[in-house]
Amino acid sequence: MTSNNGMPFPTERGFGERNDIADRRVDALARDTILLVRERQMSTRESLVRSREETMDKRDNLAQEREHTLGTRESGVGDHERGMREAERLKRVLESHIVKLRQANEHLVITTVRTQAMAEQIQQARDRMGHMAHHDFLTDLPNRLLLKERLAQAIALAQRKGHRLAVLFIDLDRFKVINDSLGHAVGDQLLQEVGQRLLAAVRGSDTAGRQGGDEFVVLLTEVANERAVSELTDKMCKAIAEPYQLAGQVVHIGATIGISIYPDDGDDADTLIRNADVAMYHGKLDGRDRCSFYRPEMNLRAVERQRTEADLHRALDRGEFELYYQPKVNLHTGAITGSEALLRWTHPEQGAVAPARFIPVAEECGLIVPIGRWVLREACLQAQRWNLAGLRPGSVAVNISALEFRHTDFVAGLRAVLAESGLAPSSLELEITEGVLMRDVNASAAILHELKAIGVMLAIDDFGTGYSSLSYLNQFPIDVLKIDQSFVREIGASGGDGVIVGAVIAMGSSLGQRVVAEGVEEREQLQFLCARQCQEGQGYLFSRPLSAHGFAAFLTRPGAACLHC
Ligand code: C2E
Ligand code: MG
Ligand code: MG
Q1: CATH number, domain at 506?
Q2: Ligand 1 lined by 545 (C-beta under 6 Å)
Q3: At what angle do helices 80-134 and 45-74 cross, to 10 degrees?
Q4: Which residue range forms the structural domain that includes residue 401?
Q5: Which of 55, 181, 421, 437 could form a disulfide with 467 if both were Cys (CB 3.0 to 4.6 A apart)?
C-alpha cells in the first residue's frame, strides 16, 4: 500500500507493529493471569474466575479496538496524525488494563495468604479447645475428665495383665487459710507449684491431675505392693512440704493423701477415686497419718458425718444447744474481766458432742448462720440477766464464723439483739479469726468499722495461726488479740521459751490492744505472762467452761476476786 505521494504509507508498518505488540502483550497478560488463577486455592476460585472473565472482556475490547483501527486504515480515512493519536490512546488503555490486572493479582495473593492464615488459626483454636477440655486451666495438669479416661484405660490394661494400680487422692492442709490470708493470686501460684512438684515426683507412665480446688489425684500404674506406694507417697509429701517462695514470702503447706488400690478397693474409676477420697478424709480427721490406705470401715466415718449434719438440722428446734461460759481473768489483779460463750450440743443418743466435731459441719452446710444467731441472742440475754441480778459478769465474748460475719443481715441482726436484750454494746465482744478477716480485707475493714460504730469490742481469735499481714491488722479497729493456745503451750515446764507469746504481747501493747492468752494451764505459763505484762488470760488454770448457772456461782464464790493468788 502506498500514500498519495507514492511512498509506502508511513504509518502502515507502525500500525502493524503496534498491533502485534498489543496482541502479544494482551495474550501474555491473559496467559499470566490464567496461570495465576490456576495457582490459587479453592477458597479464592470464585474471585479468580471473575478476574479471568474480566481479563477476557478486556482482551475482547482490545481486539475490537484493533479491528476498528484496521478498518479505519483500510478505508483509507485515517491519516498519520489520527493514527498516532489512536496509537497513544491504545497504549494508555493497555497500560490502565495492565495496572488493573496487577491490582487484581495483588488482591488475589493477599486473599490467598489471609485464607491460609485463617485456616491455621482455626486449626490452632481447635487444638487449644481440645486441650482445654481435658486440662485444668490453672495448672495445665489433666483434669477430672482426662484423669477418669486414663484411669479407665489403666484399669482395662491392669485387668488383662493382672497388675495392681493405685489411686492417690491428695488434699492440701490449711490451703484455705493461705488463700484467705495471702490472697487468691498467691493461692493460685501455690497450686501451680504443687502441681509441678507432683509431676516431678511421679513416673512418666503415671498421671498427676487436678481434681478441683486444692485437691489432686495421682494414678500410679503398675504398683508392686503397699510398701512401694508408701515410699512414693512419702516422697510426694516431702516434695509438697518443701518451702515455697511466693510473692516475696516463704510459705509452707502440707498434704494429706488417701490411697485406694485396684483391684482390692474397687474395679472402676469412680469407686477407686471415691475410696481414695474417703481414705484422705479419714486421714484429715485422724490428724496423725499423712497417708492413709483405704479400709472398708472408713466409709462409716463418712456416713457418721452425714448423720451429724442431719441431726444438727433438728438440734436448734429441739433445744439441744446450750451455752457454757469460760471466765477471762485479769492476770495482775486476778479479777474476772468477762467470759467467752462456748456452744455445747447434747445429742439425744450420743450425749455431749465436741464443738470441734459439729462446728465445722455446721459451717460447711451453712447451719452456722441460724445457730450463730441463736448463740448471739442467748449470750446477750444471759449477760444482761446477770447484770440485772447485780453479778458484774464483765464482757461476754461470742465466736463469729466466716459465714455469719459476711452475712448481709449480720450487723442489723446484732443491733436488734442488743436492743432486745438491753445489753450495753461495750459489754459484748466479738471473736473473729484472722483467716476470716483476711479473706477480703477491704470488705472486712468496712464491716469492722460498722461494728465499731455500734460500740461493740472486737477481738482476733487464735491469733498467730493465720498468716496475717501485720500491715492489714493495723488497719482494722481491733481491741483485743487472743494469743492462740498452741503458743501458750510452748511456755513453761512442758514447752520452749515462749518467744512468740512475748512478741505478740509486745506488739499488742504497742498497737494499744489488750492481749488475752488462751489455754493457760500451768503456773509457769501464768508467771511468764505476768512478767511480760500480758493483761488477761483464759484457761483451765482458772476455770473450765461453766454452765450459765455455774458461771453465776463462780462470780459470787468467796475469793473470786483473785483467781491466781
Ligand atoms: P476458741 O474460740 O478458741 O475457744 C477456746 C477453746 O479452748 C474452747 O474449746 C475451750 O474450751 C478451750 N480451752 C479453754 N481453756 C483451755 C485450756 O486451758 N486448755 C485446753 N486444752 N483448752 C482450753 P471448745 O469449747 O471445745 O471450742 C472449740 C472451738 O469451737 C472454739 O475455739 C471456737 O472456735 C469454736 N466454737 C465454740 N463455740 C462456738 C460458737 O458458739 N460459735 C462458733 N462459731 N464457734 C464456736
Ligand atoms: Mg474463741
Ligand atoms: Mg481461740
Answers
A1: 3.20.20.450
A2: yes
A3: 180
A4: 303-555
A5: 181
